[in-house]
C-alpha cells in the first residue's frame, strides 16, 4: 500500500522539477488552510445559529402549524431522488454504508437542534430514499414506474404544500421543488422545439430557431422578471402566484437549452435509419417517436441531468420576484441583529449544502453517462 502511494506521489506530484517545486509550495499552503479552517470550525464557530434557524433555512416563512406538509414533501423528494439514483448507480455495500451513515449523521444533527421528532422524521426520509434506491435497482417492474411517477410526485407535493399559499413556500424546499418541476417541464417543451427546428415546414423552423436563439441570448434573470411582469397584463382578471410565474420563466428559458441538447442528439442518429423507416411507409410521427427520439435522448440524457444542476444554482434568482429561496433564507437570518456576527457560519453552511447537492447531481450524471456508454457497446 505504501509503495503504491509513493509511486502515485512520484508520478503525480514530483515527476518533474516544476511539479516538485509547485507541490512543495502548494501542499504546505493547502495543509495550513485546512488546519485553519478546521480550527475555526471546531473551536471558534458558533453553529447554534444554524441549528436554531433550520426551520427558516429549510422552509422559509412556511407556517409552523403546516410543517407536516413540508415533511411529506421532503419524504416524497427523497423517494424521487432515490428512484433516480436507482436507475444509474448500483447500491453496493460501500455506497449504502456511506449514504446510511450520512443520513444518520444528518438525523442526529437535526435531532440535536430541532428535537427528537424532527430527527426521527429526517431518518425516516433518508430510509425512504435508500429503500427506493434499492427497489428501483433490484426490480424491473418498479424501474418502469420511475418516469411516470416523477410528475405524479411533483403533483402530490404541490397539492399538499399549496393550502397555506404559494407565497409562503421558501428555503431549501422551494429551491428543490422549483428545480425538479422546471426540469420536468422543460423536457417535453425542449423536445418539441428541437423537432420544430428540424422540421421541413419553414414557418415552424423559423419560429423555433428564433425562440431558441432569443432565449440563449438573454440572461435568466431578465426572462424571469419579464414573465413575472407580463402575465398580469395578459390575464388581468386572474391572480397568478409569483411562484408559478417564476417557474414559467425558468421553464421557458431552460427549454431553449434542452432543445439544443436534443437537436445534437437528433443529428447523431444515422440518416440511413430515417430513410429506411420512411421507405417502409412509416409516418413522420412514428419515425420520430419510435426510431429517432429514443436514440437521440439516449445520447443527451447525461447533458439533461447535468442541466438540473444549472437550474438548481439558478434558483437563487427568485428573490427578484419576492420569493425566499435557500440563499435568501440565509440572508434573512443574518438580517436579525442577534445573528449579524455569524456571517461565516451561515454562508459556510449554505456552501456545504449547495456543494453536497451539486456534487450528488454531478456524480449521478457521470454514473448515468457511464451506464449508458456500457449499454451502447
From TrEMBL:
Which residue ranges does the record assign to the ABC transmembrane type-1 domain?
Answer: 172-365
Give the membrane topology. Multi-pass membrane protein
Q: Which UniProt keywords apply?
A: Cell membrane, Membrane, Transmembrane, Transmembrane helix, Transport
Q: Locate the transmembrane regions by residue number.
A: 21-42, 68-86, 93-111, 117-136, 145-166, 172-196, 217-236, 242-262, 304-324, 344-364
Q: Where in the cell is it found?
A: Cell inner membrane; Cell membrane
**Superkingdom of the organism of origin:** Bacteria
InterPro entries attached to this UniProt entry: AA_ABC_transptr_permease_3TM (IPR010065), ArtM/GltK/GlnP/TcyL/YhdX-like (IPR043429), MetI-like (IPR000515), MetI-like_sf (IPR035906)
Q: What family does this belong to? A: Belongs to the binding-protein-dependent transport system permease family. HisMQ subfamily.
Q: What is this protein called?
A: Amino acid ABC transporter permease
